[in-house]
Amino acid sequence: MSTWGGPVDVTLTGGRVVTPGGVLENGWVSVRDGRIAAVGEGAAPDGPTTNVGGGTIVPGFVDIHCHGGGGAAFTSADPAKVRKAAAAHRKHGTTTMLASLVTRPVPELADQVAALAELVQEGVVAGVHLEGPFLSAARCGAHDPAILCPPEQTSVTKLLDAGKGTVRMITIAPELEGAVNAVRQLVDNNVIAAIGHTDATEAQVRPAVDAGASVATHLFNGMRPLHHREPGPIGALLDDERVTVELICDLVHLHPTAVRLAARHAGPQRTVLITDAIAAASVGDGVYDIGGLEVRVVDGVPTLAGGASLAGSTLTMDMAFRNAVNSCGLTLVEAAYAASTRGAELLGLDTGKLEAGLAADIVVLDAELKPQDVMVRGEWVKD
């Protein structure tokens, strides 16, 4: 990782550049005033250059579902810990992320959202994702079932008001009482309604999508399984052109074949890689807390203490990208779209692609597709 400091005006040369339209084998990316000025192939324009030594240049990763990292969780009201978690993922190429929160009582969640809202304004994270408390007890995973509740209008309003416009996505089980009305409420407030942690039938999922739900929270995980006589949420969400599907590409939550099947069916416009990472990401094995529940991480796999239920991951987005390419059969273009572009599109942000006019959020990967250098808004990330 480079230790350069301050914004730079430079043209990155000497590598392959991954764009939505294809891979430029002898490509270059020019950065000016924190934005991408131009992208091309062949001879670079005049001016300062940096040779990336044959590396692969991709857009900065966008993670729309992340609970923490570097030993810190986004549930903390301590700004220093939130910054620590964001910084841990930034070193792995994640230049934009949502701070995901787990199930807690609504008043406590509102306090957490309010604390994060200030950090959203500072640009530490791009917004807040609430994964709970409006989930199914039958598919709650690492969420305390005693705290789960239906998405009543007053509860949803309290959480949105606490965020002052920074809540960007809320996950809801569509079979809960009031779920379809809650989806409409979110859409009316420009918040993404996601479907997840659900035991719904296909027939229960359809009305929520018709009402505006547009994301499947970690498809396959925390859901009624796909069955040939009852497709359930997996079949309904994967097959609906209006829905983008999240995939945890750590090769633990999903087999490579499952990732490949889902990504191929949904296509680049509807596939987004996520980490669902907890505080253990970039730290290692040990005992952690998620929403008041004890989680043990062994060999990099978090599970609830005393059980086998997976409790998030220790994944980073660079690893998700590598896994997608090396193990799941996605091309570099497809993986970049899923790891960067689609998430930025969902959030309506000016990043996620190597394209003139967008923010200069860039990752230079080495021959093993590991981050060599990371740039955020035209500034190199320091060690």
Topology readout:
Blueprint: E1 10-19, E2 22-32, E3 35-41, E4 49-51, E5 56-59, E6 61-63, E7 68-69, E8 72-73, H1 79-90, E9 94-102, H2 106-122, E10 127-131, H3 153-163, E11 167-172, H4 179-188, E12 192-195, H5 202-210, E13 215-216, H6 232-238, E14 244-248, H7 256-266, E15 271-274, E16 286-290, E17 293-298, E18 301-304, H8 317-326, H9 332-347, E19 362-365, E20 371-376, E21 379-380
Parallel strand pairs: 1-4, 1-5, 6-9, 9-10, 10-11, 11-12, 12-13, 13-14, 14-15
Antiparallel strand pairs: 1-2, 2-3, 5-19, 7-8, 16-17, 17-18, 19-20, 20-21
Helix pairs in contact: 2-3, 5-6, 8-9
Question: In summary, what is this structure?
Answer:
The protein is α/β, with parallel strands linked by helices and 383 residues long.
Folded structure, characterized:
- There is one protein chain.
- The protein is 27% helix and 27% strand.
- The chain starts with 9 loop residues before the first strand and ends with a strand.
- The longest helix is centred in the N-terminal third of the chain and has 17 residues, at 106-122.
- The strands form 4 sheets. Strands 1, 2, 3, 4, 5, 19, 20 and 21 form an 8-stranded mixed sheet that branches.
- It is an alpha/beta fold and 383 residues long.
- The chain has helices spanning 79-90, 106-122, 153-163, 179-188, 202-210, 232-238, 256-266, 317-326, 332-347; strands spanning 10-19, 22-32, 35-41, 49-51, 56-59, 61-63, 68-69, 72-73, 94-102, 127-131, 167-172, 192-195, 215-216, 244-248, 271-274, 286-290, 293-298, 301-304, 362-365, 371-376, 379-380.
- The model has no long low-confidence stretch (mean pLDDT 96).
- The protein is globular, with a radius of gyration of 20 Å.
- Helix 2 (106-122) packs parallel to helix 3 (153-163), helix 5 (202-210) runs parallel beside helix 6 and helix 8 (317-326) packs across helix 9 (332-347).
- It has 9 helices and 21 strands.
